[in-house]
Specification:
Length: about 800
């Protein structure tokens, strides 16, 4: 284990820190997420621990620190983790190991900990899981922004349950997912990791993610970590907005989903980094939301308090501030928490502070089954992380995530189409399929390493069309243009400062021929239809890298214009992690399909939609901007008449049509009622089966209301055969109308409009309800987040 040289601090600065810590400790009231049996086991271990053993349990490290030439090095173990360790961080993305080899490595490390350290405490092995288990050979699901467009929590739960099975098979028990940040600008480089701009939709998807990952018992499931708490990637400058919107997904995942791990953001709240912010982590998270679990730092976040934000004089005070604010575990390396020994001596932290963090760390290990007499580490036998069942889920998710933005009737492609020109930089590359924090993207960006597109098999659009097209249809292919030249992204100098992006670009074009614009135009002219696959890839989007704008990168727009000039119908297929501004070419395109980063089965899914084997059902979880102006867009504020988006929140087309009828709502209800009901019927008026995502919005009608003009409060996917009608009802709780005003949760009486829509601007049915009663205060905050929905077949 490293030794750390003490740093010199002034007495004046010590006193300031002590006052800061003491202020928030006076009102601290911690809870335990355990039962009496667990408490007894944890306290017995805690009472037997030295200070060094305690610090070890509240820090994380990397496997590379204890390995030599790809093998576990016992001498390095004795040097680096003599007292054990809390977590091994990103253990699988840090390696390039087949499933069985990965499991065996985990078992070897755990065996060392359980036989060679005094306390014999196993470590938590954690990994990213936003698009599935991030490891070699595992199923790669679509990125979350695309998944948000499925509006399908049930499918999300199935996906994360499969992820949990894979992780447990390898010996992993903890995930740094889901990401619950609400994102209202496509300029944010981590926009793709979000479920979009709406708190209700994000909460629904987040709760499903947590439930699927954790299962019914953490001893067989994987602990979910909700991140980034809270308001990361947004302005985060309004208390009302913070409570009503940014906190909601975290609160729902804690109260409804049962999440027991939270990661604070890198961001700042009221001039203080969240990682050391007692208002956020103690007052709001623990006292107001009632969270009683484990708080883990984002990687390097505590050290940033000293290095980047200059809010601590050195690493010792940064660690003391974080621990006192409520951060239990320092990830990913022991940079500041080893100084807690010195901080304890100087009175910057107390023994109780350290013990509480260790207690939570050990409790999590008990909950995960790691402190059982014979803990199960991995699963014996051959392992398959990309089973046919998993691939089917990935395909289904990709199919439902695709949003049809425009269609003049060209899609699905007709039987008289015999020649197709498939052109563009994303037509035949796996780099158009992969979101940030997939195993492949992590290896490519962070390690500058080529990945194997066959493990798991990443199906490109070209391959998908080749798989699906009739034999009598000719498919011509040519790239035609590059993604971006010169390189149109910049590195985050605070975190990296090397030439990583240039290396990543070289990886992305490895083995590809130079684009030939002349040949692409030639092929386009002799084809019946042009499919232009354009957009982004992993070097243009993701954490640590920023693009200069949000239009089509490089010369892609000019390339599409040359295709349009041929006079042949152009089907624009957009890949990427954000909405890309296409207002200059939108009117001339025959159809526009947004595929996002669709994962390993993306090529098959998009091909089936283009050919009509699948009817598109995706709806936008974000507003689609018309310009590249750097601003946040939130449908809830209402779109300005002279500044409409290209496509509104909730928008998406189908190959069939739907009719809304039979609106029913009770005229009055009381504020203290459990719920009230609103219903309608949906009919498929087209000639083919399809799925409509019915959206329920609420608007206040009182002139003085401080509620947003329109808010999503319910949704449901309704599958209908041609000509079929189904009835749909929602039970709405008055708590769903709660507002945070004057530091209290209140429900206000008055008239409200309830609206059924095919999007936030395409309202099909509308009615009013009067909520009677005086202002109703929620003393314990909101407890009800979601509307209950029920679908019934309607008798014709």
């Amino acid at each position: 284990m490293k030794t750390y040289k003490p740093l010199n601090l002034t007495l004046k600065y010590f006193n300031l820190i002590l006052c800061f810590i003491g202020l928030f400790h006076q009102t601290s009231a911690q809870k335990s997420f355990t039962n009496s049996e667990t408490e007894q086991k944890v306290e017995a271990i805690l009472n037997d621990m030295s200070i060094e053993e305690k610090i070890a349990q509240i820090t994380g490290t990397r496997l590379r620190e204890i390995m030599t030439d790809g093998k576990l090095d016992l001498e390095k173990c004795k040097q680096h983790i003599p007292y054990g360790i809390g977590h091994f961080c990103q253990f699988s993305t840090g390696q390039s190991l087949e499933p069985e080899d990965l499991r065996d490595l985990v078992r070897e490390v755990q065996n060392y900990l359980m036989t060679e350290t005094r306390l014999k405490i196993p470590a938590i092995f954690h990994e990213e899981a936003i698009t599935g288990f991030a490891t070699l050979g595992a199923t790669t699901f679509p990125q979350q922004l695309g998944v948000g467009c499925t509006w399908n929590p049930e499918l999300v739960e199935k996906n994360t349950a499969s992820t949990a099975r894979n992780m447990r098979e390898a010996g992993a028990t903890f995930a740094l997912s889901p990401m619950l940040d609400i994102s209202r600008t496509a300029h944010w480089n981590r926009h793709q990791e979000s479920y979009g701009e709406d708190a209700y939709l994000t909460s629904s998807m987040g709760v499903a993610f947590v439930k699927g990952l954790q299962g019914n018992d953490l001893k067989t499931g994987v602990a979910a970590t909700v991140k980034h708490f809270a308001g990361y990637g947004t302005k985060n400058n309004s208390t009302k907005e913070l409570y009503e919107e940014y906190l909601m997904p975290h609160e729902a995942c804690i109260k409804v989903g049962g999440a027991k791990s939270v990661m604070p953001s890198y961001g700042v709240y009221r001039a203080l980094p969240v990682t050391v912010n007692p208002t956020m982590l103690d007052h709001i998270l623990r006292k107001e939301l009632g969270f009683d679990g484990l708080v883990v730092s984002d990687y390097g976040a505590i050290n940033m308090v000293y290095k980047k934000y200059k809010r601590a004089q050195n690493q010792m005070t940064a660690g003391a501030m974080a621990l006192s604010a409520g951060v239990d575990i320092e990830l990913s390396s022991p940079m500041t928490y080893p100084f807690l020994v010195e901080a304890l001596e100087k009175g910057l932290v107390t023994k109780e502070d350290i013990d509480q963090a260790v207690r939570r760390s050990l409790t999590m290990k008990v909950r995960l089954g790691l402190l059982d007499d014979k803990p199960q580490i991995g699963v014996d036998g051959d392992l398959d992380f990309d089973s046919q069942e998993n691939r089917k889920l990935s395909y289904e998710t990709a199919s439902q995530s695709v949003v049809l933005l425009k269609n003049n009737g060209i899609l699905p492609l007709k039987s008289d189409v015999k020649k197709i020109a498939l052109v563009g930089p994303n037509a035949a590359t796996a780099h158009s399929l992969l979101g940030d924090y997939t195993y492949q993207a992590i290896r490519a960006f962070w390690k500058s390493e080529l990945f194997d597109a066959k493990n798991p098999h990443l199906v490109t659009l070209k391959e998908g069309l080749e798989n699906k097209l009739p034999k009598n249809v000719k498919l011509y292919h040519e790239r035609g243009c590059d993604w971006s030249a010169p390189l149109e992204a910049q590195i985050d100098a605070d975190g990296f400062g090397d030439d990583r992006l240039s290396k990543l670009k070289l990886i992305s074009i490895e083995g590809l021929p130079q684009p030939d614009l002349q040949n692409a135009t030639k092929l386009a002219k002799k084809s019946d239809v042009i499919i232009a696959a354009v957009g982004e890839n992993i070097y243009l989007n993701g954490e640590g890298r920023w693009r200069k704008g949000i239009g089509l990168p490089g010369e892609q727009e000019a390339f599409v214009e040359k295709l349009l000039d041929t006079g042949k119908p152009v089907v624009l297929v957009l890949f990427g992690g954000r909405q890309q501004v296409i207002s200059n070419i939108e009117k001339r395109c025959a159809a526009i399909v947004n595929a996002w980063f669709p994962g390993e089965e993306g090529g098959n899914a998009v091909a089936d939609i283009l050919l009509g084997k699948v009817n598109p059902s995706g709806k936008l979880c974000v507003s689609y901007p018309r310009t590249q102006e750097k601003k946040e867009i939130n449908y809830k504020d209402g779109y300005v008449s002279d500044d409409q988006p290209q496509y509104p929140f909730g928008f998406g087309l189908s190959y069939t049509s739907f009719e809304y009828n039979d609106f029913k709502i009770q005229e009055e209800a009381n504020l203290d009622d459990e719920n009230f009901t609103v219903s309608c019927s949906i009919k498929n008026t087209g000639k083919r089966e399809g799925t409509e995502i019915v959206q329920l919005y609420i608007s206040p009608l009182e002139k003085n209301s401080t509620m947003k003009p329109i808010q999503l409060k319910g949704f449901k996917r309704v599958n209908l055969k041609a000509g079929e009608t189904k009835s749909l009802s929602f039970k709405i709780s008055p708590q769903q109308l709660a507002q945070f005003k004057n530091n209290k949760w209140v429900i206000e009486g008055g008239e409200y409009s309830l609206k059924f829509g095919a999007s936030s601007t395409d309202i099909r049915l509308e009615g009013k309800i009067l909520l009677k009663g005086e202002e109703h205060f929620l003393e314990n905050g909101r407890e009800v987040f979601f509307a209950e929905s029920q679908i019934n077949n309607k008798e014709l």
